[in-house]
Structure formats: C-alpha cells, structure tokens
Amino acid sequence: MDPKATKIGLEIHVPLRTEKKLFCDCPTSYHEIDTPNSLICEICTGMPGIKPMPINSKALDAVIIIAHLLNCTIPRKRIYMKRKHYDYPDLPKGYQITSEPIGVDGVFRFDGGQFPDIGIWEVHLEEDPGQYNLAKGLVDYNRSGVPLVEIVTAPDIQDPEHARSFMKDLLKMLEYSDLILEGTGIIRADVNVSVAGGNRVEVKNVNSIRSIYRAIKYEILRQEALLSRGRVIEQETRGWDEERGETYTLRKKESAEDYRYIPDPDLPPILLGEEYISKMRELLPETPQDIRQRFISKYGISEKYARVLTNNRDIARFFENLATKVDPPLLATWVCEELLAQLNYRGISLSETKITEQNFYELISLLSSAAITEATAKKLLERIVDSGESPREVVEAEGLGAIKDDGSLERVVEEVIEENPGPISDYRSGKTEALNFLMGQVMRRMRGRADAKRVSKILRSKLDKS
C-alpha cells in the first residue's frame, strides 16, 4: 500500500456534555436510561408547526472551545444554521439542523512526531438524529436533538494505524476537556477512503476506534483488489458490518447537493464577536500533552511515566493530588508499575476499586520512610485494592513493619546457610542463581519484612567469608 496514493479522511461526531438538547429543554441523558421515547417533546420529534427554541448556548461554547483546541480559525461572519434534508425514520421532520463551519483550517498535532499531523477542515455543531433499529424496525427518539460536535479532517490520514492513533489522541483530548459525553458507542465516524485510480468511498456510522481501524483496512484491500482486476471503483456510500468485518453498499454517488442544504428560516444566524471568541480561548483546558510536559518539569518524573499517567484522566488526577504530599518519582513508579498492574489484571478502572488517595498516600509514605519493605508494600496494595483498608492500621495490627535489626537478619541468614548445603555448594561452584533461592528462603522466613538489598549484602558477605 502506497500511503501517498491512499487518501483517508474522517467525519467524527461526538455528543456534547450539556443538560439540555440543542433546540429544546429535553434532557440529554439518553445513554443512561433504558426506556425508549421518554426524553422527547414536540420539538425534538418534529411535530408539524413546531418551531425550535434558541440554540443551546452551552453547546455553542463547547464547539468554540473544541475549535480552539484543534487550532482552528473562527470565522468572523454570520454563521447560518442550515437544514440538511434527508428522509429516514430516525429524523421525523425530514431534515437535520447543522451549522455552517464554526472552526476552519485547523490542525491536529501529534506529540513526539510518530505520525504526521492531520489537517482539520472544519468543526461545526449539529443535532443528533434518533436511534433506528433496522432489524426490529423500531425508532427511539431519546437521542434526537442532542447536540453534536462534528470534526471533519483533511484526507491526510495515511493508513489504519495513523487513524487509530489519531482517534485515541483526539478522544483523550476531548475527554480531558470535560465537554463531551463519554461511554461505549457514543462516538460515531464516517470514514472516507480512496486509493489511487479510484473514487472516494464513504463508510457511514462506524462507532468505535477498533471498527474505524478495521473498516479502513478492509476498504483499502477491497478497492485495491477491484483495481487489480480492472474494475472501476464507484463513488458510493457503504455501511459497516461489525460481525462480518466488512463494508456493504448503501447508496451510489451521494454528494452534498443531494442533501439540499438551506438556511433554517426559524433560526437567526450566529455572529461571533471578538470578545466572545477571546473569552472562549481563555477557557481552554489543559490538553494531555500540556499536562504531560508539566508533570515532567514540575515533578521531575520520566517522560515514559508522564505518558502512562496522562493516558487516563482519572489516573492523572489521582497522581497530581498526591504528588505534593509524597516523593513524586516514587509515586509515579508505584502508580504506573504497581497500581496499573493491579487494575489491568482485574480488568477494572480506578473508580471500581477501593483505592483512595488517603490509603494510597499511607502506603507510599510507609514505603518511602522504610517503615515497610517493597515486598510488604506490594502485598498491601494487592489487598487494599479490594478491601479499602488503611495500610498503616494493617501494618500496626499485624506486625508487618520492616525489620531493621541486622542481628535478627544475620541469625536467619545463618540458619538458612546451615540448612541448605546443596545450594551453598552450587553457589560456590559458580552457579550464582543459587543465591536467588537462598534469598527467597530468608525473605520467606522474614515474611517479606526484611529489606532485600540488606539481606543480599549480608548473605553474600557470609557466603564469601566461609
């Protein structure tokens, strides 16, 4: 596959986090309830003769901020809300209201230069249609009218991996902004793919990053296979079959003219003033890239750990809330290496555990003061993830504090040497791995309360002398 000959662009639709829909007062919590058609009114179901309410100002604010985050230019002209006509069961009034571009000529910049940057053609605001279950022939209008931001990229994406990385970083940035709804299946994208010698093919309503990756990969292979057989790739709109992992024809040669865009006569145009645009720019949240650099410079942690911490907003906040109380590099190591290992093993998020800032602070404080050993700390962490206990209280109640008395350590080391002549002989004959066995015997007898480095030093000293 020649990346220069392949053109890939995305039209990404993300619901905005607002309490009310775009043109009515119905709530936007469709993703939280199971009762269909319970969050609707005459406006969002398109009853005859009903006019929209004024545009939701919070949704407009959110789109302006997102346009700024994507380095877009905000047009200084009247922006019309337009009717995009098409007849479908999930759109009862027969048209979707969508704005003219609110942000244009932006760019999404990748951190670290792993992939080329991606141009952003436009950002605009529109209302979501309802949800149509094609198999059952049923429509749920709870989602109808929920405000969406649509982000249209230039055809700068080179391959499926480029697209996947972009989507991950884009969603991370939007999640950090607190401006979008979050959840499985919330995001939807139309995928545009063309290979050299063929027309553009659009794949509609792909609803996960994994599916975007798979749809692009499938379309490139399908189009290249057609061209290799001398076939013509027609401009068309296709659907995505998640189970079969393939696209299928929906309709041929669809263009913008087919939608018959007209300004909505019931909605006045929007004129964005300099003062308002500047105010929105001042509200820009920190991006994950901003936070990553701040973690490195402020807390002195490695870039590797800074990247891991900022991969998840809750983890980043958890780290920062504790970083002023305990040693930041030690904290970063334990969050990235130990805490995340426990979460990954269980397949859960931080919020699903009983870990709190307080009990994790106690754990790191005990460790950094050498009140407990690293082995004990690991066992305590594994325990408090599920129990939520206080590490300090557990250590005191169960006598898990570190043993710092060298005399006690030496006695146990001598007992282990006396009881294990075979491994001692192996060690002295050059089999250094025998030392690990002896170390394990000592640590087991000390119940993990001895410092491993101290034990190793004493053990080597006695083995080399005798």
Structural descriptors:
8-stranded mixed beta sheet; alpha+beta; 15 helices; single chain; 466 residues; elongated
Question: What this model shows, in words?
Answer:
With 466 residues, the chain is α+β, with helices and mostly antiparallel strands. The protein folds into 3 domains: 7-186 and 255-282, no CATH class; 288-398, no CATH class; 406-465, Arc Repressor Mutant, subunit A (Orthogonal Bundle), CATH 1.10.10. The protein has 15 helices and 15 strands. The protein has helices spanning 57-69, 160-177, 209-228, 274-282, 288-299, 303-310, 313-323, 328-346, 357-368, 374-387, 391-398, 406-419, 421-428, 434-445, 452-465, and strands at residues 7-15, 78-79, 81-85, 95-99, 103-108, 118-127, 131-133, 138-140, 147-153, 188-194, 201-206, 236-241, 246-252, 262-263, 270-271. An 8-stranded mixed beta sheet has the order 5-6-9-1-10-11-12-13. Strand 11 (201-206), helix 3 (209-228) and strand 12 (236-241) form a beta-alpha-beta unit. Helix 12 (406-419) packs across helix 14 (434-445). The protein is elongated and about 95 Å long. The protein starts with 6 loop residues before the first strand and ends with a helix. The model has no long low-confidence stretch (mean pLDDT 90).
